[in-house]
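1st attempt posting a full record on here, be nice pls
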Amino acid sequence: MNQSFYQALFADDKFAMAIGRLTLSSAKLESSIKTFIDAHGKVEASEKSPLGGLITLLLKHHTIDRTAGEHLQFVLHQRNYFVHKLHSSLSEYPENEFELQRFISRASALSSEMDFFSSALAPTSVEA
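the predicted structure (as C-alpha cells):
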C-alpha cells in the first residue's frame, strides 16, 4: 500500500468515524466488564487489565452463557485485528472504494456488537 492510500483514509470522515467509534466501544466494553466484575465481588480486576484479561476473568469467575462467552472471545479477536494490527490490516486492502467501504462496515458492525455486550452487562435498575 502506498502513502497516498493512508492520506485518503485519513481524509475519509466515514473511515475515521468508524475507527473512532470502534475505539470508544472497546473502551466502553472494558469499563462495562470491569464494573460487572467489581459489582459481583467474586474477583478483583486491575485498573490496567486489558480487554482480553477482563474477558478471561469474566468467563472464569462468573456464569456466562457459553455462546455469549464464545462471542466475547470473537469480539476480542476482531477488536485486536482492528486496533493492534491496523497497519497490516489496511495493507491487505486494495485502493478501491468497495474494499474501503467493506472495511468501514466491518469496523462499524464490531462497534455495534461491543455496544450490545456493554449494555447486556450494565446493571439494571428495578423500579417499584
